[in-house]
Amino acid sequence: MKPWKRKSINRETKMKQKVIFIGFILFLFTAVIAFSNTDEPEGLERLDNSVFENPHRPGAVFAHDDHNEIAQIEDCAVCHHVYEDKKLVEDESSEDSPCSECHSLKPTEENSISLSVAYHKQCKDCHFEENKGPVLCGECHIKE
Amino acid sequence: MNAFIDFIMGPMVWVAFLIFILGLIFKMVLIIKDINARESYVYSYLTWKHSLRSIFAWMTPFLPQSTKQSPVFYSISYIFHLLLFIVPIFLMSHIVLINEAFQVSWVALDDGLADILTVIVILALVFFAIRRHMVPEVKYLTSYKDYLLLIIVALPFITGFLAYHQFFFYKAMVIAHVISGEIMLILIPFSRFSHMIVAPLTRAYMGSEFGNVRHAKDW
Amino acid sequence: MANEIETKDEPTIVKEKNTDKAVEAGLARLTPQRIKSTINQVLQKETGPRFKAYVETCMHCGLCAEACLYFLSNDRDPAYSPAGKVKQTIWEMLEKKGEVSTDFLRRAVHIAQTECNVCKRCSMYCPFGIDVAYLMLMVRRICHKLEITPLYIQDTVNSHSATMNQMWVKEDEWIDTLQWQEEDAREEFENLRIPLDKMGADVMYSVIAPEPKFQAGLLYQAATIMHAAGVNWTMPSSPGWDNSNMAMFTGDNEISGRIARAFYETAARLKVKRIVMGECGHAFRSTYDVGNRWIGWAMPPFEVVHALEFYHELLTSGRITIAEKFKKTVTLHDPCNVSRGRGLHDMAREVTNMMCESFIEMTPNREHNFCCGAGGGVINCGPPYKGERMINNKVKAEQLKATGAEVLIAPCHNCHSGLEDIVHHYDLNMEVKFLGDLIYETMEKKIYKPGD
Q1: In chain B, which end has fewer C-beta atoms inside a 10 angstrom radius, N or C?
Q2: Domain range enclosing C202
């Protein structure tokens, strides 16, 4: 063995070993979790997503009355808004018609907000503003 | 908490991309200025023809002799580098967020496929780490920094994979995903990840020396 | 050769004795201050973005190892891989900001001068095209400035500096040797001349100093080939006739530049149309690629033609005709400086096939050929290093043996000498020949007349 090949255990090697070790543990951990079954929480109230032709995610979890109670929302128009000629119509609400009546699956001339974007923005914008409530994809689209 | 998420998914994304892009541009400018100041002779030899010839030869799978001699490494490396760009750019969740922010979108990968590709990226990184540890000539060159680079690339993919499956700590996982992705982007101009733009330059110069002066192939 | 010492936190440091007097004496003269300032001066002031890119973008992938004769010959010892050599030299110099020990430098000069042929094969195996040879030459430059260059090669540089040739050949000795060869050759060709200082000749023929010193027969052969081909040629009588350049391989760029300048100026003084040079690889590298750059010419100021290309021209134009093809089986070694360095490998095959009946390829070949193990100034470091050179050339020996050829053609002086050593050391029972040897043996001994 050539002398310059010989490595003594030094700080760098120790550090290296530590890094490899931690990396390995992390990987094992994730692998075990990844392949073990996770149970779906029972009785989640979800939004009806049947209007989407090919939904990529399960319908968002949303308990309408609980939400409004906690959020202290009484005016339906806060969410169920009405727009005419791209202007918000005050004092009118649209809780009797489905969102998809105005928001089509793809943005159109009259309405540039597609249905999914409408849902996403409706929830997230407010949650960000209030600094409360779920804002990340999987917080609403909980796995079935 | 939402304010923090808003920050890392809003302004911080801008910051990360700006540092990433401007950093690379700045680095490129510095290199060119440095070349002009100290090594302007390289322009006597650089030609577009031979530069591109060499770069494309080296991007063609199994054309260079070296790739024929180490087919396993190069196959994994080619796939890894391709997926490194393809997976994040064509991931549906990313496109949805971009669509909400900028009203633009493009074709997305099927989620199931993207999931498999993510695992491939992670496995490629595991392969690189094992190779670093097992192959003597690679181990000899390796310091903890080389593992660190692998980990920095691996983290966004691992956390993204875990977040997608919502296995555990969903919220923390997404936050870790966003932050690790931003760290990776920010580090690109300041680390050896900058081979992204420097390697084509060194390749171009070697390709030009070989093609233009030496009249020989360099692959 | 080597003693081990206990080192902490310094994994790559080594203590080895070097039998090379110049290295040892040089190391004894060094002070930490001088080492530091010299290394930093070279690495900061004499490099540029290219150097920076090479050290900062290397991903430590180790793919270059597969390219290196030294790595493969030493049972894949990583210390001999191209990047491994950079790690033991440049990386550590940078990391320690030039504050390295004399033990480190003993190892560094050993690596750069005798464990790398600067053949550039590895830059064809690095996906980024990192030029490890350039980095090794940078180490040599540092060692030159620290005056720890190995004795034998330093002596050739000293000779260059004093005489403008590599072997301390005196001016009268040079002319005398040419006249002697001319006289001998006239027994074969009645009116043969070796024209000295003929103004405006088509060709200035130049050689390396070992030819007049101890291979005068090569001058004889060249003269007969020129004469038979009816070439309007000349050789210079004054310093500048030697195209070799050992300073290029010790990092003594200043002397390297002086040599190249003297050479081109000689050609300019004689107003020749082009320069043809003997079968030497490193001299070709100096006059075609490197020396010109140091004196400010992107490409050489004269058309520089390697013997191999010139023979190809003579044979394909019919100026030389082959009387009877060479019978023995031959194989061809592609010297790095004319194949990887100038792409003459296909011409070499054509020339060989025109002269020889059975030609066997060695593998790998062309640009990918293994270096002879002698080039880049390695053989010129002399006897103290010959034993290890033979070990380092094991793969080359195996490559040669696998051809089973009787004759090995090496159109390069360095390769020729190195391969002879290999053939003897490994008992390969091959005859090493220049292309010129074969042309002389097989050509029709008649004088070319246009229209024949």
Answers
A1: N
A2: 162-314
Tokens of C181: 């060869």
The reply to whether A106 touches chain C by the CB within 8 Å rule is: no
Mean pLDDT of A111-135: 91
Number of domains in chain A: 1
User: In chain C, whose CA is at the least distance from the CA of A10?
Assistant: C9
Query: CB B65: neighbour CB atoms within 10 A?
Result: 17
- Mapping DSSP to helix (H, G, I), strand (E, B) and coil, where does residue C316 land? helix
Find the CATH number of the domain harbouring A125: 3.90.10.10
Q: Specify whether C234 is located in the same domain as C355.
A: no
Give domain status of residue C130, yes or no. Answer: yes
User: How much is the mean pLDDT over chain B?
Assistant: 95
Residue C27 sits in the same domain as residue C139: yes
The average pLDDT across C349-378 equals 96
pLDDT at A43: 66
Q: Could you tell me which CATH class the domain B2-30+46-213 is placed in?
A: mainly alpha
Q: What is the pLDDT of residue C4?
A: 42
User: Minimal Cα–Cα distance from A16 to chain C, Å?
Assistant: 14
**In the predicted structure, residue C364 carries a pLDDT above the cut 90:** yes
Q: Which residues contact C375 (CB under 8 A, 6 or more apart)?
A: C117, C118, C119, C281, C282, C335, C336, C337, C412, C414, C415, C418
Q: What angle do CA A29, A30, A34 make, to 5 degrees?
A: 125
What's phi and psi for A88, nearest 5 deg? -70, 130
Residue C197 lies in a domain: yes
Answer whether residue C154 is part of any domain.
no
Neighbour subunits, C (≥3 Cβ pairs < 8 A): A, B
In percent, how much of chain C has pLDDT > 70? Answer: 96
Q: For residue A85, what pLDDT is reported?
A: 84
**C38 and C105, same domain (yes or no):** yes
Quickly state the pLDDT bin for C10 (edges 50, 70, 90). very low
Side-chain half-sphere CA neighbours of C321 within 13 A: 9
Partners of chain B (3+ Cβ pairs below 8 A): A, C
User: Which of residues C107, C126, C148 is at a domain's end?
Assistant: C148
Q: What CATH number is associated with residue C394?
A: 3.40.50
